[in-house]
What does this fold into?
Amino acid sequence: MSALIDPQDLAHETELVWLEDTIPLDYVRQALDRVTGRRRQPPYRRDGRLIGYAVLGPTAKPSPASGTYLRRVFWLAPHDRDQQPRGLYATTAPAEAVDPRTVTVGVKGHKTRRSEGVLSSGRENIALLKS
It folds into this structure.
């Protein structure tokens, strides 16, 4: 969950790479994944799609036990609002969701009225709110 991400885990981020335009997205899910590299696109093993990821700088050290790095990834599940505007998250957001407009290098971001479905960019949600 986003609330459980320690700011120290983001201290070595140097760049965020977005694989999709985040303008139309009300929220993205964020998580810390253990991966083998600091820079290249991490493998994606979730249901859904990878939206973006963090790049770590040269000062990031791998875990002594596993040799892996903790890196932030941003993703969406098939049942998220962008794919199912009238679904489970029509007027709420998953626990690990953040508004991508609040995310920057080293800053975990937070939920907003938009990410919670109150001010949605999706036409479907606006129609739902008016009815």
Summary: The longest helix spans residues 123-130. Confidence is low (pLDDT under 50) at residues 123-131.
